[in-house]
Amino acid sequence: MADSSTQKLHAILVPYPLQGHVIPSVNLAIKLASKGFTVTFVNTQFVHHQTAKAHPEIGSDIFATVRGSGLDITYTTVSDGLPLGFDRSLNHDQFMASLLHIFSAHVDELIGRIVESGEKIHCLIADTFFVWPSKIANKFGMLYVSYWTEPALVFTLYYHLDLLKKNGHFGKKDRREDAINYIPGVAAVEPKDTMSYLQETDTTSVVHQIIFTAFQDVKNADFVLCNTVQELELDTITALHAKVPFYAIGPIFPPGFTKSRAATSLWPESDCTQWLDKKPPGSVLYVSFGSYAHVTRTELIEIAQGLALSKVSFLWVLRPDIVSSDVVDPLPFGFREEVNDRAMIVPWCCQNAVLAHPATGGFLTHCGWNSILESTWCGVPLLCYPLLTDQFTNRKLVVDDWKMGINLSNTTPISKEQVSDNVNRLMSGQSGGSL
Ligand code: UDX
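That is the input. Now the predicted structure with uridine-5'-diphosphate-xylopyranose docked in place:
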């Protein structure tokens, strides 16, 4: 049994089991351990299985590559309640229901076992999207720290759902279309810039119930830690802080940004450095739509043809499942040959290494929050094409508020001419940006 008078502070950290949440959680675990915490990091077996397939060298420990630095991190996995072969992205509601009931029971059991062994756990750090952390923290007498991996603006819009509802901006068929100008610390947000879940009129889905419950649960948190930058969202953070103990702690990156990374990628990373090394500074457009979003085949074809028209060199992360249909290669016939001398197309890469490379001069992005933080850190301007959830709200921050990027398109559907024109605008430094 550990002597509680000498035991270091012990945090148990539970990320939401999706790529865009696991990465900032792993980085937070490393940060806490480097400040002297003992950390128990809990992954789902599914995420672990995918990571281990992508990085066979890590075996049973995703922190294997950073162990040498003496970090006190125990890595463990529990089942999310679904078989490994179950398609979680296609059956999202079932996946979320399983996280709600079965995964939470497994986390509860795990904590019970650790506590029974005599080890004190001082706090539970869990993703804000979980609906159960305050109950488990309460049961075991731990502090509950809620970890929010998206911007403060997105947090505050979810936090004030009741206000949005009361004012007719959410949850009604004929919802108001004028600007939302009554959220504390937020000047104004157009309804089209709110998260996709807030733009839906049917609010009875599993995801809506989870959002409602999670944002009730977060009211019981002892702290909310947000992976955002204080200076970028000061007014929103200050207003939130008056209601909840909300702290901006970002950007949370791996030490050295591209070095000392734990194995976080769920897909094998292609090495792009040699290709980038041959390109002039600032000449390459990096294109990626993150780990989760899909585009239609029509959109993909316009984007591809626009890239071809632009004559710009580009590095495109084309996830095999980016188009949710069974086509073997969603790119237009002959496209790969046409752009072969100035393009590299890979299924996944080390994005931090690509963004930090001097050859990278722009980023066509779906506006995932991690991508925005990483690109901003590297001074790479953004060409924004939001697809779902918080990405519409993140776009507003980048383009309208911070002037660090431009829109790929102001109309739907997008056309190849728009894509080509805006790629050239961005790459010639006419993004109107401050980067
Ligand atoms: C999801 C949501 O889509 C996003 O809007 C939300 O803010 C977080 O959860 P995701 O779509 O994966 O995230 O996008 P993003 O937030 O940008 O995270 C992707 C992460 O994967 C980044 O850290 C990025 O560096 C990494 N990545 C991406 C790679 O390492 N390699 C790649 O090839 C692509």
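The first helix runs from residue 19 to 34.
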